[in-house]
Amino acid sequence: MKDTIAILCGGGPAPGINSVISSVAMAFIDSGYRVLGIHEGYKGLFSPEPNLQEIDFKFADDIHRRGGSALKMSRFKPRDSEFSTKFFVDFNVKLLVTIGGDDTASTANRIGKFLRENDISIQNIHVPKTIDNDLPLPNNSPTFGYQSAKQEGVRIAQTVYEDARTSGNWFVTAAMGREAGHLAFGIGAASHFPMIVIPEMFNKVEVTFDRIVKLIISAIVKRKILGIGYGVAIVSEGVFHFMSEDEIKNSGINFTYDEHGHPELGNVSKAHIFNILLQNRLKELGLKVKSRPVELGYELRCVQPVAFDLMYCALLGYGVKKLFDEGRTSCMVTASNTGKIAPLYLEDVSDASGKIMPRLVNIDGEKPKLVFEHGLQFIEPGDYEEAKAFLDKPEEYDFRGILGW
């Protein structure tokens, strides 16, 4: 029986997954290995009858440019008691390639330890994936899929902005981001949105709905002073991860709750929440401004990868073969912009509990400083007199005052 390479994908999709699968497969097929794809991630791996995809050169060549994933994905996270050696023995697996985020990588390491304890020699190499760009890769390299998701986000954002101009409305846009604001910042900055709200901005004060709404109104009033009655604000969903549960429950929004009493944020449009709260405040202030919500999330995950990610994912795929030949295991593959391949071990980027610490937007970096200083529109002390035509207390909507900067 041929030595086999097994590939699975965990978590949610990101542009470039197929490019990684294709490049890994081509590199190993060329060296005489059999390549098997496993549908439904870890759920499929430990199923009594796994749904497998034989990956030959033609299959790999066909999927390289496509969005989505040719291997069905799953967020299933197996318990140690569900581990089994059967698949690895039956198919003579020498390498398990996992494509996913930190949870997928951590589970792969647990499986590798289990197999070694059962005298089965196998390497596992992880390809880090997320459109959130929040994994701590060396040299500030992006995570694959981020550039493609950002590009599609900008395309939609520019259409939304044109709608705002055409209709004279404001739009409140929410962008995916888990804990970090990279995607919202990247889309908003590229689109010249008058207001960008990301969790990293709140480095001096607590994240609250009141402050978020005030930031948006600051932009609305500043635009009115400039003679512009429309605009778009973008807010990262990551702000929710830094809010207290009481803040979320007391927002006035009707949430569903899980069995532990926690609000189920995944069931609600984040843009809808921000927009409702904005409309309520505008009504209180007597400001006649129409606003509408737009969510940016699932629309970005399965687009065709742009040229950057096509090349980057190919390097990561070839890098898996390089690290395998070097005998590396229990690591992530990384590729620099020059093509230098290096392993990144989880223990080097994890905290004491084993959780990978997210890479946040460096709010003190040169790029954010330039964008927040020159790319946004907001009220500052020089606007107070003109702002009094719209606000009784314009100082309460001062951008830097809201953030404690």
List keywords for this structure.
405 residues, alpha/beta, Rossmann fold, seven-stranded mixed beta sheet, 15 helices
- Which class of the largest domain in CATH terms? Alpha Beta
The number of helical segments is 15
Overall CATH architecture of the largest domain: 3-Layer(aba) Sandwich
Give the biggest sheet. 7 strands, mixed
Low-pLDDT runs of 5+ residues are none
Strand content: 5-15%
CATH topology title of the largest domain: Rossmann fold
Number of strands: 11
Mean of the pLDDT scores? 93
- Give the strand order of the largest sheet, numbering strands 1, 2, ... along the chain: 3-2-1-4-5-10-11
Series of H and E elements: EHEHEHHEHEHEHEHEHHEHHEEHHH
Q: Kindly state the percentage of residues in helix.
A: 25-40%
Q: How far is the N terminus from the C terminus?
A: 65 Å
Give the tally of structural domains: 2
What is the CATH superfamily of the largest domain?
Phosphofructokinase domain
Output the structural class.
alpha/beta
**Radius of gyration from the CA trace?**
24 Å
Give the overall shape.
elongated
Tell me briefly what this model is:
This protein is an alpha/beta fold and 405 residues long.
